[in-house]
């Protein structure tokens, strides 16, 4: 009889201890922590480099009677910098400036060589972000240095006008993005030498690589 009572008591104590241990384990178990990956944003400053091809159409009028038109093909290479603000609805607005080597040379009237050395712009941008892909339009002010050479004379003038275009930015990582862009620029008209007015505009296709801060 005493053995039966002892066995029953031991069983009861063991069951109670196991129940208490299970309760302690359940209470001490820490639920797993879930980390949310922050959504990508285009907001911030950036700097980059770009290069591509340019197609310039130029015309000149001499002494208000003689007229000549030429097509210029060349290359562009330079740097750009800007800042974007992204809103909750996916709209992105920003400002951007660039400066680039812009090489185009051709002859007017068979002996006067006209070309460009550099070009730059200051523009506004507006786009729409599909997460890491952003399509954008851009427009603003532009300028370029045009030069003319003939008979030992080498003279240059700074032309200014307007520019507009569109492109795509794609963020490869949170800090690096690539770009494809087309832009049209009308640099206006100037009397680069006495009695000779030069007018030119240019289409440019560029690829770029930038770092976002």
Summed up, what is this model?
The protein is mainly β and 213 residues long. The protein has one helix and eight strands; from the N terminus they run αββββββββ. The chain has one helix spanning 2-28; strands at 44-62, 66-86, 91-108, 112-130, 133-150, 153-171, 176-193, 196-212.
SSE layout:
Layout: H1 2-28, E1 44-62, E2 66-86, E3 91-108, E4 112-130, E5 133-150, E6 153-171, E7 176-193, E8 196-212
What CATH architecture label applies? Beta Barrel
Strand order, sheet with most strands? 1-2-3-4-5-6-7-8
Largest β sheet strand count, sense and barrel closure = 8 strands, antiparallel, barrel
Radius of gyration: 34 Å
- What oligomeric state best describes the polypeptide chains here? single chain
Roughly what percent helix? 10-25%
Report the mean per-residue pLDDT as an integer.
85
Low-pLDDT stretches: 2-14
User: How many helical elements?
Assistant: 1
Q: End-to-end span in angstroms?
A: 83 Å
| Shape verdict | elongated
Q: In CATH terms, what is the fold-level topology? A: Porin
User: What is the CATH domain class?
Assistant: Mainly Beta
Please write the string of helix (H) and strand (E) elements: HEEEEEEEE
Number of strands: 8
How many discrete structural domains? 1
User: How does the helix and strand content classify structurally?
Assistant: mainly beta
Domain Outer membrane protein beta-barrel: 11-213
Keywords: Cell outer membrane, Membrane, Signal
Signal peptide: 1-21
InterPro entries: Beta-barrel_OMP (IPR027385), OMP-like (IPR051692), OMP/PagP_B-barrel (IPR011250)
